[in-house]
Amino acid sequence: MEARIVNLKTLFETEVSYRIPQFQRPYAWRKGKQWEPLWDDVSKSCERLLNWEGEDEPPPHFMGAIVLQPRGHSTGEVVKSIVVDGQQRLTTLQLLIRATQEGFQSINETVRAERLSKLTLNSRNYWADDPDNETKIRQSNQNDQKAFQEAIRDSGDDHGPVRSISEAYQYFKEEVSKWLNERPADRAERARALEETLTKHFQVAAIDLDEREKPHFIFGVLNTRAETLRQSDLVKNTVLYEADVVDDAQSARSLWGMFDSNEWWRKETKEGRLTRIHLDRFLNYWMIMRARKDITAERVSGEFTSHVESVKPCRDIHAIAQDIRSAGVVYEDVENARVVGSETFLRRMKIMELGVVMPPLLWLYTNEVPKEKRQRSEQALESYVVRRMLCGLNSQGLNRLFVELLTDLEDGEIESTDQTIIQYLKRQQVDNRVWPTDNTVVANLVETPLRGTVSRQVMVLEAIEMHMRSDKTEALGQSALTREHIMPQQWERNWPLQTNNLDQQEAREYRNQTVRELGNLTLTTHKLNASLSNGPWLEKCDALEQHTALRLNWELLNGAPTVWDESTIHERSKHLAKLIVEIWPHAENLEAAS
Q: Model pTM greater than 0.85?
């Protein structure tokens, strides 16, 4: 590397093109964090220059470092350099210079404005028939490129779609104008101070890399602690560098464009305590699937680099990128429950919030598993995780379990995928891995509160409702269903307490536990739930009979007892528990059905 301290005139006055590589992020500086502090530095430097009485010039203002790497260019063309680090700073400085040029024009300082124009635009003689060579900086993001070019070329106020670049330009125009016109009698002197500050007194450390260095790697090292740098950014950097398209927008889009053009991939989602964008989450799952080992969120980019090296020369980076794109299409369908024939399964997996299942799911949907085998595989996975939830078993350690499952799937035959999954889960006998049996599930559902979040409990009740229906039953509407406690949690007013052989306190505690049992739960609409409230049993029966269309409630009302108490709740818990083990069968029943 070679480092040199240069002012902005030296940095921009030659015919140059600082090209933002494809692995860089879009422009992200904001008013409060960056624009205002920068302008504050500029205005203070200007005031210091205006009031300077020493013989020597005031000390320069150092703005930090930029890292550049020379690129090849033709004779008579602009000198090209890749901006490895410092793109946000360079872009902002160009917008500030352009806004200052516009401010000079507005007060008839045309000579100064003309001098500044040479710091933002290259002479047409050096374009070499490439319009991108007109501006000193070429953005990699298409939207940023449009906004930047309009700001640098146009003197009007309409700069296309509202982008951070457009907003930055407008901000600096307003601040420059206010400062120049703060004391009208001193405009000329203030214009001199502003020009000298920007061209001579603001300096950067320009670090020039050897052409053999890997710019994406150095970018990653320099930005490891940056708040907005994500694992997906680093993976993208590696892909584009290995494919040698860091300065080729069209080729870069073909490799990675589907992730940059779809805002869904940048949407943040929460899973447990971890909030990540979809792209980071997907690449983590993809990396686990391909490496077949547990990989934490912060290790994805490093593992990806190792993976790329390990598969050479059998697979080049284009094949790896194609694999990522294909799996990405599948992942988006999985996340949005759009896999045909698997919609219900995927919605339930979403409710279960078990990201550890995603790597085997990606494997399942990216391989040509026959539909029947795939659906039985889904049934086994769903039974395994739902039964464990109903029995209150901890999910800790399941990440390693599903990673090991990937190895079995890779080593097995596609035609036997369902049996591979069933047999693997069946042989797990350690407590934190076991697939609960029918007896264990039933025992956990009778005389104990139903486990799981409210959404998971609703999922269980909806599964029972679907199980009760036949192909002759009319379809339900789209209205959302809520969980209803038949005997309300606030039961004291309308539900007399029978102490039997218990003392008053024991009877209350027993009832408070019983009202949370499976047998005391049903489904209603929001409106019906609100109207039922804490009403007595017979009133609830009348309301349900009048309004419900659910088989779950019709069965409840069929031969309904005159009293709804702990004993009837327990009996209904036993009945529904037997349905649940049919809905989510254990390995033996799945094997018998194959």
A: no
